[in-house]
Amino acid sequence: MSLFKRLLRLLGLAKRKPDNRYLGKKKALVVGINAYDGSARLEGCVADAQHWYSYLTSVCGFEVRVLTDARATKENILHRLQWLCEGTKKGDVVAFTYSGHGARVRDRSGDELKDAQDECLIPIDYNWDDGVVLDDDIDQCLRKLNEGAKAYLVFDCCHSGTMTRELSDNPGARKSRHLAPPFDIRARSECADVPLVRIGHHMAEAHHNVVALSACQDNETAAEAVMSGQSQGAFSYFLLHMLREKPVAAVGRLIEDVSKQLKKADYAQTPCLTASSALAALPFVGPVGGQEDGR
Fold this sequence. Notes:
The chain is α/β, with parallel strands linked by helices. The chain has one domain (21-280): 3-Layer(aba) Sandwich (Rossmann fold), CATH 3.40.50. The protein contains ten helices and 13 strands. It has helices spanning 3-10, 45-59, 74-85, 135-142, 163-166, 183-186, 201-206, 234-245, 251-264, 277-280; strands at residues 26-32, 63-68, 93-99, 102-109, 112-121, 133-134, 150-156, 175-176, 196-197, 210-214, 223-227, 230-233, 272-274. The strands form three sheets. The chain has a six-stranded mixed β-sheet, with helices on both faces. Helix 2 links the parallel strand 1 and strand 2. The longest helix is centred in the N-terminal third of the chain and has 15 residues, at 45-59. The two termini are 29 Å apart.
């Protein structure tokens, strides 16, 4: 390398090869469900969806599809997940955010129980036999993702706890985003020592191009409460706050900062990140405004 080229590089004036990892399309699916029946009703999930929509469109330049309440059926969620992943190419980035109830069920094939408990998402038209969104359902969609594309999954829900203990009918009170299955469903795994499949996270472990972020650990509950005068998910609230404050921070660092904020605000939940070390060192959904820092 000539002395002149070295000088240009030191001054930051040398031409750099373009970073093609994030020059593709950006698409997202945002889901928020409040309108569950009876005491299962939530208050902050649609607000989460509105805030995620605003961030992904105005800050990140995503094309976003939104499903809330009555339209957030299992069929619609899976249909939109197909739209998210089909036809992706190298450099594309997709995101899926979910705010609503979660649960934990014993997976089965026909009449045969499988040797695993699955975390699941609860659509508005759920039933406990085949009307929840399983990890396998999302995995089927993500298999259509181009190997050179990236997927970011954000789950502001939880899959453990007892609904009757943690839900309150008082407006503004902290609520848990966990829906306890009825006893006959719980009985399938009550006495069985079977492994737990964390929704989204085993996909991030298996696929180098998937990042999964969850509101809490598998033995904790995800809360929603009134913040800034509006009911919202605590995880979404602090994560979006940190994303706007530090848009080019590495995902791994962001989750550490969000965890500190939740603890400071007296929330008993620790966010969970599963990603390759390479993706954990990059900003959420890639560089914002053409920057790539990762600090």
